[in-house]
Design brief:
The chain is an alpha/beta fold. 31% of the residues lie in helices and 23% in strands. The protein has a domain of 72 residues. It has an eight-stranded mixed beta sheet, with helices on both faces. A four-stranded antiparallel beta sheet has the order 2-1-4-5. Strand 4 and strand 5 form a beta hairpin. Helix 4 packs across helix 5, helix 5 crosses helix 7 and helix 7 packs parallel to helix 8. The relative contact order is 0.13. The structure holds adenosine-5'-triphosphate, iron/sulfur cluster and magnesium ion. Adenosine-5'-triphosphate (ATP) binds next to helix 1.
């Protein structure tokens, strides 16, 4: 794994039109995906995870959506400036995505073989029989043993876990450099979830594909990610090394998410969940966006918005006054002096 970024998102801001107003769903998000790593993006429903990743695929629906500012740099080029024609060269080839519910992405009327061969031929100039051969290789790559038989089956004949493997095979068809997996295991039961995560880790090691894994579950992040970006209400609230954050989370929201991860050693009747909900875009005008739910809220929180503080030592980022007030933590991300 080299240290350089393969994808850099810089100060990305995306709004959706609601009546006459544009409301920010993603509000100044910056992070890097390093070559060969698995980066987790975690947060509750409505925090802006999917909107961020759709932007990296050039798939923000416009209207109502709009990329207001920011850059998405891939191989030295800013993807936000790309035309639809340029996007078609990148999407599915260099940057691929798998979605939460595989049934909605597979066409029930066509066999798996039809769809897989079609997807391969769309992006390559392989003949039909070469594409079939490649399909079989891909199905083997994602751990489907009786590949030839599966090619003749229809999506409804397969289990959820099997369908998700096929979606991963499709996304891997052109050896993408970046794979974005948006809640790839949410619809699956726990055992199958573990298998799919193991498969993604295996693909990452075998093919060196860099992966962005989107999830609402820090437990999933703990399984396979090296670094994690924690998002809340369209902003990053904490970012850094997974081991460090799991051991010593700094942001009250991260602490809450961590408390809601099931601990196998401790039998609890009910799992903790942070009271309240993620605010709608644009609904909090003043102060910290997490303040209405924060158990550590104090003086400045409802008046000023905390900025993202970045540690110069290890690049760890936290957006919270408590953290900023700690001795020495007096500088914000992006400010060098
Ligand atoms: N097509 C759309 N039209 C209008 N607003 C949208 C649209 N898509 C997303 N949004 C807005 O962006 C916000 C963030 O949505 P996003 O889908 O990125 O959340 P998420 O973090 O992926 O949540 P989930 O865990 O439920 O998938 C939503 O709360 C919504 O207000
Ligand atoms: S800034 Fe205040 S309200 Fe926001 S997370 Fe920190 S302590 Fe909580
Ligand atoms: Mg989503």
């Amino acid at each position: 794994m080299s240290d350089g970024p393969i994808l850099s998102i810089n100060d990305l801001k995306i709004s959706f039109q609601s009546g006459k107003e544009f409301l920010p769903a993603v509000d100044g998000v910056s992070f890097e995906l390093k070559e060969g790593e698995i980066l987790g993006v975690v947060g509750e429903s409505g925090s802006g995870k999917s909107v961020t990743s759709l932007a990296a695929m050039g798939l923000i629906p416009s209207p109502p959506g709009k990329v207001e500012t920011g850059e998405i740099i891939f191989e030295g080029k800013d993807l936000t400036k790309f035309t639809e024609k340029e996007w078609r060269e990148i999407r599915g080839n260099q940057i691929s995505m798998i979605f939460q519910e595989p049934m909605t992405s597979l066409n029930p009327l066509f066999t798996i073989g039809n769809q897989l061969i079609e997807a391969i031929r769309l992006h390559t100039d392989l003949s039909k029989s070469e594409a079939k051969q490649r399909s079989i290789e891909l199905l083997k790559l994602v751990g489907i043993p009786r590949a030839e038989g599966i090619l003749k089956e229809y999506p409804h004949q397969l289990s959820g876990g099997m369908r998700q493997r096929i979606m991963i095979a499709m996304a891997m068809a052109c050896n993408p450099r970046v794979l974005i997996a948006d809640e790839p295991t949410t619809a699956l039961d726990v055992t199958i979830q573990a298998q799919i995560l193991a498969l993604m880790k295996n693909l990452n090691q075998k093919t060196n594909t860099s992966i962005i894994l989107i999830t609402h579950d820090l437990g999933v992040v703990a399984e396979i990610c090296q670094r994690v970006v924690v998002m809340y209400a369209g902003q990053i609230v904490e970012q850094g090394d997974v081991k460090k954050i799991l051991k010593d989370p700094q942001h009250p929201y991260t602490k809450g998410l961590l408390k809601s991860v099931p601990d196998l050693r401790e039998k609890k009747d009910r799992l903790y969940s942070i009271p309240g909900m993620v605010p709608l875009p644009g609904s909090i005008k003043n102060g910290c966006r997490f303040a209405p739910r924060c158990q550590e809220v104090f003086g400045p929180c409802q008046v000023e918005s905390p900025e993202l503080f970045r540690s110069e030592k290890d690049g760890h980022e936290v957006r919270c006054f408590l953290h900023t007030l700690k001795e020495g933590n007096d500088r914000h991300a992006g400010v060098t002096s």
